């Protein structure tokens, strides 16, 4: 009996699917780079005290900055109506105002740019049939998350326009964490479209890798609370804090739960201790992955993740000792994003790529 095959068309479809995956993955990596830049500009905007310089939310018209002296004066007068000007920047000139305005304007412009960078290629890939069925709801969800993040950003800014001289640490933490969730989603989908040389890892490794990504995300949330309370400007010693491993007066505010969100001392202490917990968990993950899957890419990535977390811990200590100097603080924030992206990629890599939708049938 002779065997005949009818595989030419399916094989061609699989080749096309792989090419389409490569194109989509490159696009998502580009989105990831711009998202990284957006978060970093947002950090600089916060560090320079620029986040409240634009007091209105104009998603469309707001892309055009003031174009003449009269428009600059009008924008400056709006800023003069908020508590931050009255209590911190009173007497500021228009030229000094421009220095903080451009940071916030650039942050908002970059956010709008990310929206177009997602929406236009997404429409192209969708219309030209380059998206697999499983990707369509995921990528449409990314676009929706981006729109929601824009609303959260304004909700955060609005908290500092009437009674406060800075934004609410609660809303700042939500804004940064939500941005990180979007970053994770982009990295996760992109890595799911990659080609892997090894099979998926043991389920135990997959679960632990997912836990590591979530631990890193939660540590970033705690860091956002530290930033929102300016908690890094005090207790600038390490390893002791206020002269002790566990300082006193951590629970002075009533009710007790508020200390973990509103006490700079308590928030900084929790951020320190959770950093130690993440480091221990990363070491445990690296050792256990090596025992379960020795000499594999999964084990090597687990050890690399541990190395990145060690570097981030060192940068965190440096930031603390430097009293949260802007350069150190931005380095700390940027490297946290790198750790988060790698942890997410490691998690997706442990699970393997999305299966190809095109199958090849062989007839005999």
Order of helices and strands: HHHHHHHHHHH
In round numbers, the mean pLDDT is 92
Taking pLDDT < 50 over at least 5 consecutive residues as the criterion, the unreliable ranges are: 1-5, 360-364
What does the largest sheet look like? none
Q: Helix proportion of residues, in percent?
A: 55-70%
Indicate the proportion of strand residues. under 5%
Q: What is the number of beta strands?
A: 0
Shape: flat
Q: Which class do the helix and strand fractions yield?
A: mainly alpha
Number of DSSP helical runs: 11
End-to-end C-alpha gap:
8 Å
Number of domains: 2
Radius of gyration: 24 Å
Description:
This protein is mostly helical and 364 residues long. It folds into two domains: 8-195, no CATH class; 197-355, no CATH class. It is 69% helix and 0% strand. It is built from eleven helices and no strands. The chain has helices at 8-47, 69-79, 83-89, 94-127, 135-158, 169-192, 203-228, 259-262, 264-292, 297-321, 326-351. Helix 1 packs antiparallel against helix 4 and helix 4 packs antiparallel against helix 5. It is flat, with a radius of gyration of 24 Å.
Defining key terms:
single chain; 364 residues; mainly alpha; 11 helices; 69% helix; 0% strand; flat; disordered N terminus; disordered C terminus
